[in-house]
Design brief:
mainly beta, about 0% helix, globular, glycoprotein, Integrin_alpha_N, repeat, signal
Length: about 450
């Protein structure tokens, strides 16, 4: 598997093709890097998959763009753009290949540089691009057995201190335990429909019971001729031998989720979007706090609740994207909720992001914020179809220990897209030091990249 750099600039990161770009002196064991810290400098980098981007005149061939972290946050001047190239997985660019869907990251070989899980949605599968002191390198590995890839789910499911990765393959999950530099044969977990033709899933991985092993939640439903059946939330706890048996936590339709420690008790909490089920048809957010046995009862949050900003209306897409991260480093994670089709004033489908603060008792509306392109200090203007908040992800681009919020603005400038990175601070998110960049800053303008559609979480 080979990759190439589409753009290089004076400060851009180059890729060494077919070889590990790490000097021999760097071979000594190092502390594993944080996910997304591809050059091992202690700062998480901002990466986005753009599977609909044109590459070399090929419609929807797809790419992944990385803006590296710096002392001042995400730095688009130090950037890297990857696309599939050459023979082998994930294959050469071609029309509608969809390279770059839902990227994920971990330091699989524990060399102090985070690695990137990449996939191509046209049947060429999933692989790993390894990091190095200058960023992502030309050293790659194929995940054996995959033919269709839409990203990986990363976690330490057996608690041995080494990251594992799970990918969807047909009617099964393939679990690569401790893939390292040479992934081996995966374990297989069959996905058996309860009442349908096949199972649709969205995965969330975190340590919900506090035993230092990652657990897996599947937001699942069966499918019959495109119609959802038997919706459910499934939980598989991590064990010393990998993932345990399936538990059905609840039966309801859920559209996407995220996890983090909202109440600061040392266990991750599950946050997910609920389809509109009140009189207005507006969507709501469900929160299940982690317990010693897994997940607790559901707590429902709506924009109609006192202190929660936003429109509370059907069609605003509240919860289309979710992220959980600690913006003020108080040990309690905040919740970012994207509503990409929400109005801003009279401007339709401009998009907003709601940020709810974490607290000892759980989420709180105290200090809640509503962010859009109309927010003071945010460059640009709220325009119809911008889809601000289409994806949201927490990172730490400046390495100060406070989570920064990356917001994808997929529809900006006729589907060119744009990314905004709001720094974390003592009082939570701030516009001071806000970084924003589009395809032109990365040398990929004019490709209808829809930059920010799939952020690295």
């Amino acid at each position: 598997m080979a990759f190439r750099t589409l753009t290089t600039a004076a400060a851009a990161v180059t890729v060494a093709l077919g070889a590990l770009a790490v000097p021999a002196s760097a071979a000594a064991p190092r502390k594993p890097a944080l996910p997304g810290d591809f050059n091992g400098d202690g700062r998480r980098d901002v990466a986005t998959g753009a599977p609909n981007a044109a590459v070399g005149g090929l419609r929807g061939a797809g790419l992944i763009a990385v803006a590296y972290g710096s002392a001042k946050g995400a730095n688009p001047k130090q950037h890297q753009v990857l696309t599939a190239a050459g023979p082998g997985l994930p294959g050469s660019p071609e029309d509608d290949a969809g390279f770059g869907q839902r990227p994920s990251s971990a330091d699989f070989d524990k060399d102090g540089y985070a690695d990137l899980v990449v996939s191509q949605g046209n049947g060429n599968g999933t692989g790993i691009v390894y990091g190095g002191p200058k960023g992502l390198t030309g050293r790659t590995a194929t995940l054996p057995g995959t033919t269709y890839g839409d990203g990986g789910t990363v976690g330490d499911f057996d608690g041995n201190g080494t990251a594992d990765v799970i990918v969807r393959q047909g009617d099964a999950l393939l679990v690569y335990r401790n893939p390292g530099a040479k992934p081996g044969t995966p374990q297989t977990i069959a996905l058996v429909p309860e009442n349908g033709e096949f199972v649709r899933t969205k995965a969330v991985a975190a340590d919900f019971n506090g035993d230092h092993r990652t657990d897996l939640v599947l937001l699942a439903n069966d499918d019959i001729d495109g119609e959802p059946q038997a919706p459910r939330i499934e939980l598989r706890l991590g064990t010393a031998s990998g993932l345990g048996a399936r538990q059905v936590v609840a039966r309801r339709m859920v559209d996407g989720g995220a996890a983090g420690d909202v109440n600061g008790d040392g266990r991750a909490d599950l946050v997910y979007a609920r389809d509109g089920d009140d009189a207005s048809g507006a969507r709501s957010i469900g929160i299940r706090y982690g317990t010693a046995k897994g997940l607790g009862p559901e707590h429902v949050v709506t924009q109609a609740a006192k202190g929660v900003p936003g429109s509370h209306a059907a069609g605003d897409g509240w919860g289309r994207s979710l992220a959980v991260g600690d913006t003020d480093h108080d040990g309690r994670a905040d919740i970012a909720i994207g509503a990409p089709t929400a109005p801003v004033g009279k401007v339709e489908q401009a998009g907003t992001v709601t940020v709810l603060r974490g607290a000892k008792g759980g989420w709180t509306a105290t200090g809640a914020k509503l962010i859009s392109q109309a927010t003071a200090g945010v460059a640009g203007a709220a325009e119809k179809g911008d889809l601000f908040g289409y994806d949201v992800a927490f990172t730490d681009a400046d390495g100060d220990g406070r989570a920064d919020l990356a917001v994808g603005n997929r529809g900006e400038n006729k589907a060119e897209g744009r990314i905004y990175v709001f720094p974390g601070a003592k009082a939570g998110l701030t516009v001071k030091g806000l970084v924003q960049f589009g395809p032109d800053s990365l040398g990929i303008g004019g490709r209808q990249a829809e930059l920010g559609a799939y952020l690295l979480h």
